[in-house]
Design goal:
This protein is an all-beta fold. Helix content is about 0%, strand content about 65%.
């Protein structure tokens, strides 16, 4: 079974046991999270979207926090004596998916 979730403005396709890096979340390392913004559930019985997902959640465990590799930004204008360099390191939270809970009873 897999799910498509939204966190940090991005969509991720996840399965139980996967580890992935998402935008920084305010949670301590080792704590449990419940992600309830589920867009789609898929499995051997087909795909569920829309109102069929009311109550669907994905549970995850926070493995740790960190910062990604540096991205270098260079702005250069030829013949103008203009050159600007910057760098950026994005914070992330590494999570492990521990379970996918499908929607409850259909109404």
């Amino acid at each position: 079974m897999y799910a498509v979730i939204v966190t940090g403005g991005k969509q991720y396709r996840v399965m139980q046991g996967e580890t992935l890096r998402v935008e920084k979340l305010e949670a301590d390392a080792g704590s449990e999270l419940t992600l309830d913004n589920v867009l789609m559930l898929g499995g051997s019985d087909g795909v569920k979207v829309g109102d069929a997902l009311n109550g669907a959640t994905v549970s995850a465990k926070v493995v740790g926090h960190g910062r990604a590799d540096k991205v270098r930004i260079v702005k250069f204008r030829r013949r103008k004596h203009h050159r600007k360099q910057m760098g950026h390191r994005q914070y992330y939270t590494e999570i492990e998916i521990t379970g996918i809970n499908g929607a409850g009873d259909k109404k």
